[in-house]
Protein 1
Amino acid sequence: MRSTKYPDSKQEEFLESQMRFRTVFDLSTLGNKIILPGLKIIQVNPAMVALLGYDTKEDLLGTEILNYSPADHHQHWQTLQRHLWEDSSPSFSLETILIKKDSSLIWVNVTSILFPESGRHLGYTIVEDITEKHALRLHKEEFISIDSHELKTPITSLKAVLQLLNKMVRKETIINEKISTLANEAQLYTAKLIHLVEDLLNTSKYERGELHLQKIIFPLSHVIDGCCNHVKLDRKHYVSHSGDLNVKVYADRHKIDQILVNLINNAVKYAPDSEEIIISLERLENSTKISVIDRGQGIPPKDVAHLFDRYYQVEKGEKENSGLGLGLYISSEIIKKHGDEIGVKSIIGKGSTFWFTLPDK
Ligand SMILES: Nc1ncnc2c1ncn2[C@@H]1O[C@H](COP(=O)(O)OP(=O)(O)O)[C@@H](O)[C@H]1O
Ligand SMILES: [Mg+2]
């Protein structure tokens, strides 16, 4: 046994860490397995057995992963094999399909790391069933492909009607306060709906490669002055500025406005306790850096890397979740198309800074 090579205290430490590893391995609610370079399974946990719909570990031990993979997905495992064992990548992730015992198919996310044991390298693989998430993603995509006019036309009419209604309500001298509140709320909800629909439609448009910019030179004050009216209305937050608002940039004004509105809305929604939201403008060599800063609870590091992904939302427990996870994706597509940069810096408990740059000309 290799453990005889260790002095007593080291050996104890080694055995202890072995035991800890075993406990974590067995108790994990995600499927865990250990594989040889040839993809043969040499260890599994109960969650892995359940995930594939089998009864006991022995059903899986000694079999090969490819037995549970449809032929047209074999290449996924071969890629994983190559990355880990040939290219010696420390870890590798992929999404693929597995076949359960009852022949049904599930989508899984697989993360593998390589670890040395007894002179050879084994693959430690964590498997998560993402079938539901996957179906949801497909549904969203199908929904988005709806002809945009069918959604847009009635909402635009609704908006016009509500504007008119609100105008009439304001003109009345004797009006039930309740009616006035309702008319106002209807207008606010329509604005929210328009926002969501626009996000969806823009996403599908950009997916089809239809993101066209109309660049002009304009002072940033033109977008910053208009973007925060709704925030001043909500009374809990106020927006302050730092830097020179008159600085000019060369960009698509309407789209930059859209980005700012999303960043401010996000700060209001996801940093509700941050009274102050700061828009800061900072001159760089040939460009300007625009930051939206809040002092909210911040974003966990594991989520930060994914914030600009399509549909990505940080899990928020019971909190209100009114968006679709598209705002930042759309913002980053727009900024990338400008050839500029967008990013975020967030510290837990201190707040978040979302920033992007725009060129002078
Ligand atoms: N200022 C912020 N503070 C904390 N979390 C944020 C902030 N801005 C964005 N987020 C997180 O990023 C996610 C993605 O934002 P976004 O793409 O605009 O989508 P949506 O607002 O529709 O959820 C949000 O769901 C939220 O979890
Ligand atoms: Mg948003």
Protein 2
Amino acid sequence: MTRASLDKQPHEVAAMFDDVAAKYDLTNDVLSLGQARLWRKAVAQAVGARPAERILDLAAGTATSSQPFAAAGAYVVPCDFSLGMLREGKRRHPHMPFTAGDATKLPFADGVFDAVTISFGLRNVHDTDSALAELLRVTRPGGRVVICEFSHPTWAPFRTVYSEYLMRALPPVATAVSSNPDAYVYLAESIRAWPDQPALAARLQKAGWSEVAWRDLTGGIVALHRGRKPAEPVNP
Ligand SMILES: C[S@@+](CC[C@H](N)C(=O)[O-])C[C@H]1O[C@@H](n2cnc3c(N)ncnc32)[C@H](O)[C@@H]1O
């Protein structure tokens, strides 16, 4: 396993997640200092899944991020391109319809989902804009998107402390708890290189999403972006 560089190749990203699949959730909880659970609750609230709605959880990994939507009675499709993550997910949640697919070429028809969501995955996709366009394509007119991703703390002094945590504290902690610490060095570097909140909102708008807005969590360590697919024009 080689370490993925920031201009990561899709097969390197998939291999990296294959490697960490078994201990992925534990490592997340430790490295986020317990915040991961709060972030997941906020995502569930933002998506607002209702019974019988069809929800795509893209880059779902082991489908930990999919559970709140299933609990709300929605039909959730967890989709990911790491077979290691999908296998581990299927072992834990045998009844969920895990689907192998690349975010930039989704294996779904147009307009089939009421809501699409992606948690801690968009940053890893090699072509962000294609993924945003694909998410739009598979969403029904009037449907919604929620993106949960690491972002940039809004208060400058906190931003400095956090940046130090990412680059100095995270790699040794990751070495202690993870099966592949290199994946977490990549995590730190990719967070620093990711667009800030307004820049990601602009990318969503450019991809065709409307009503784009975001909410910061934990001071902006994470941001929840949301948007809506414009309704189809009514012919006079
Ligand atoms: C950090 S994990 C997030 C998993 C899950 N959403 C969660 O919140 O726990 C990121 C996932 O993105 C997936 N991924 C990265 N690039 C992808 C792509 N192009 N298509 C599909 N999945 C992708 C990886 O395989 C990995 O499982």
Protein 3
Amino acid sequence: MTYSVDESEALHNHIWSDSTSRSDYTCFGDVIAFDTTYKDNLYGRPIMPIVGVNHHHNTIVFATAIIADETSQSFEWVLHNFLEAMMNKSPISVVTDGDREMQRAIKYVIPYANHRLCSWHLSRNAQANIGDLKFTATFSKCMASWWTTEEFDIQWRSVVSEFNVEKHPWVIENGNTRHLWAQAYLTSHFFVNIRSIQMCESMNASLAIALKHKKTYLDVVRAIEDGISRMRMNELKADYLSSHTKPFQITKLVDFESHAAEIFTRESFLAFQDVLLRETLYRIEEEIQSLSDECQHYILSKYKEKNMTFEISFDYRTETLICSCKKFETVRLLCRHQLHILKYLDYTYLHGTLIQSRCTNDSKASAPSYVDLNVSPEVM
Ligand SMILES: [Zn+2]
């Protein structure tokens, strides 16, 4: 635990974590999310769990802070002490609710991290500001679509004009910050599959119950620790399920499915199975042997949507497949187009370059122990 005091020696900001959370951060700390939805009952201070997702796509808590106020100074203090506790390993990406002071602190303390604004908060704000359900639905579609940036800009201009909101301050402001929320601008930046801070909800649910009936700091800390214990118990159950049971296979690509079932956690396997089912929607339009490199290039089109094409290059030396859709770089799970080419090349397994360790049953195999972290198992 680390804390700071004010001029009167009263508690100002504090943050705590334990060795399991710190060990988890070394495996899954590539993407973090945080918000300050809840305040403690006694002093009204914001409670700020810093969370991520594990190999089962379930929420895990890396640290929790209770801060004096929501100024950029307090957020900077939290992020600075958080990174110090995590052996100065910066996250690749951060997801927040869009608080300006928080944004300022992120830019200052972790300037190289990709930043995404919570899609759930943005949709809610769209409805609150524009007050048109049709606009909110269209805005949400713009936010989530895997368009190119050029396609997004065309669509955005057309939506803004269609709803006649060109001069609305909320629309102008969000148009200017589209690189923080539009999938088109965030593609190829790694966010696992986190689009919103709704993942903080499981922790916030524990806090909501605790804060209803209890008041002291100690009550808040106990509620957080209870929530973390429940999450860890769920992880153990998911570990057991993934390692000791076999999922039902549903395609004729038996070798691929068996290989994936063996290496991936159940949750990742189900996502892979969905990719397996949908790769049949694509066909190879053109095959080009590059003279300048060792790569074979393919142009794929989608069934009934011939205009939708994807370029895939396959490097025979390294068995690397790169697709123009950039889904693998964004969510770290093979895309339908890559899988279609693997099938075409008669592969029966996934090469190591196409397997992200945070999706596998072994993702925590090299996690540091208490001894590696140089701390007692009790507290940071
Ligand atoms: Zn692709």
